[in-house]
Specification:
Strand content: 15-25%
CATH architecture of the largest domain: 3-Layer(aba) Sandwich
Radius of gyration: 24 Å
Number of domains: 2
Number of strands: 20
């Protein structure tokens, strides 16, 4: 989709379709829609007064102007109750309007920015473009039938009436486009089948991003990881014929900046290994690399935004399959940290590969480590499909994540990491087990990971619920969601803005 900005007024602008917004039961129209209404001799206000358009949240209606305006058509989108509108709902409205217009088969949309509350044009533009781009996302790479009938919007034109407004819109548009493109890339990776997205594919994507954005990248092969002592990562990888890759990316390498490490679980397909999963929904295990996809997306966006941070992305990438070489329940693995783990279930492989990745991250002596993983079904049971499980060992870092969550609408909920939970994974024959009882499964997974970060401030994000959804949300279609990209980028933006004098 081509996005651009024009200086002009909605009521005077010649276009295929003009997108306008109205609150529910407004006492009077406000902003661009008011000017269009006046130019249209009160047609829109009469329409609303007669309840032909109620302005309910996400309601959309098409109107042909019949030459009354320079615009050929108008779509009205409902904002709901004025006192309840926030940026998250604004994203949703933009998404629903975009989907409505796309289904009409209209290729070009012109949209003035609707002011509300105290939000700046820059923030409003950011949210609108984010909702529009993410809401109209489609994954059709592998469809061959009726491709010529696929509907999509080619152009989105944003209107600003003054030079200052245009400048604010431009800043919001640039940021939203960069971050939304990163989210869509992460969605593409999660939606693609595992015979298309392998560990080698993730490594190639990392190299592609590095080349485009000036990052450093290193890809360790399995024999190199084994020589380093990554016994947990290697054990999981040996069950697959696909070569495993341990991917390390660096942005602003060798710069005197705050160092933050992002670690993403990169299981490109998870059968459960010897502890094989039920067949039902196993096809969705192609998205078990959603944490890795989020790290790739976040690094791509952070580099394009030129954030003043030293960022390290670590992705342990492999499949988890049963074979004659696969690791087994009862095996004891020696991790990169030197600690040993008794394998109770080979389907708890994510925490094993992350243990070596987290230990590897310590060499950078970071200010913070953040890992993302589709780690536990238990987190889905606890929090549902739309909420990220939040764990950590550092209160200021946890609060930073929660603040970023509020700004982006990517919901997180904090769960405890009390030391008593470690009793569940004590082993008789090793330092600890990789699973405990059925109780507190999401917490146990996080407790396990905590053993590998030492005293470094660390947050674990269990994205098992929202990473791949079966029912669409306002600006999130079914399937891979790209969850975590926007959350991470907001956290990094906030971090860089609050640290003008980094170490």
């Amino acid at each position: 989709m081509d996005l651009r900005i024009e200086k002009g007024s909605a009521e005077k602008f010649s276009c295929e379709l003009l997108l306008l917004f109205s609150f529910q039961s407004p006492s009077s129209l406000e902003g661009p829609i008011q000017k269009v209404d006046q130019a249209w001799n009160g047609f829109l206000s009469t329409l609303i007064e007669q309840n032909d358009f109620k302005g309910e949240l996400f309601q959309c209606r098409l109107i042909h102007t019949q030459g009354a305006l320079p615009a050929k058509r108008v779509v009205l989108a409902g904002l709901g109750k004025k006192e309840e509108l926030d940026l998250e709902k604004w994203r949703g409205v933009a998404s629903k309007a975009g989907q409505f217009i796309r289904e009409l088969g209209i290729k070009q949309v012109t949209c003035p920015i609707q002011p509300f509350k105290d939000e700046s044009e820059e923030e409003l533009t950011d949210a609108l473009v984010t909702g529009f781009l993410l809401g109209t996302y489609q994954f059709d790479e592998f469809k061959t039938l009726d491709r010529d009938k696929a509907k999509k919007i080619d152009d989105l034109i944003l209107l600003g009436e003054t030079v200052e407004t245009v400048q604010q819109i431009q800043r919001g548009l640039n940021r939203a486009q960069i971050i939304s493109n990163a989210v869509c890339m992460a969605r593409d990776l999660a939606n693609a089948p595992s015979n298309n997205v392998t560990p080698s594919t993730l490594a190639e994507k990392a190299k592609e991003i590095a080349k485009q954005e000036g990052l450093d990248v290193q890809v360790l092969e399995l024999h190199e990881a084994e020589a380093m002592g990554m016994g947990a990562f290697v054990a999981v990888a040996k069950g697959s014929q696909e070569p495993a890759k341990f991917i390390v990316m660096e942005y602003n390498k060798n710069q005197t900046l705050d160092t933050i490490v992002l670690v993403g679980k990169g299981i490109t397909f998870d059968s459960g290994g010897i502890s094989i999963k039920p067949a039902d929904r196993m096809d969705q295990m192609k998205a078990d690399m959603s944490g890795a996809a989020a790290v790739l997306g976040a690094l791509q966006a952070a580099a394009k935004l030129r954030l003043p941070l030293h960022l390290v992305g670590i992705i342990p990438a492999t499949e988890n399959l049963p074979s004659g070489k696969a690791y087994k329940p009862g095996d004891i693995l020696k991790t990169l940290s030197g600690q040993t783990v008794e394998v109770i279930s080979t389907d708890a492989e994510g925490r094993l590969i992350l243990s070596d990745a987290l230990t590897y991250s310590l060499r950078y002596q970071p200010r913070a480590i953040i890992d993302l993983a589709t780690l536990t079904g238990a987190c889905v049971i606890a929090l549902g499909d739309y909420v990220i499980g939040l764990f950590g060992n550092d209160e200021p870092l946890l609060k930073k994540v929660e603040e970023a969550s509020i700004k982006t609408g990517e919901k997180v909920w904090r769960l405890p990491l009390w030391e008593e939970y470690f009793e569940y994974i004590k082993s008789d024959v090793a330092d600890f087990k990789n699973v405990g009882t059925r109780a507190a499964g999401a917490i146990i997974g996080a407790i396990f990971l905590r053993k590998f970060v030492e005293t470094i401030p660390w947050v674990h994000l269990d994205i098992a619920g929202p990473a791949f959804i079966e029912k669409e949300r306002p600006y999130t279609p079914k399937g891979g969601t790209g969850v975590g990209v926007r959350l991470l980028v907001q956290l990094l933006r906030d971090w860089s803005s609050s640290n003008p004098n980094p170490q």
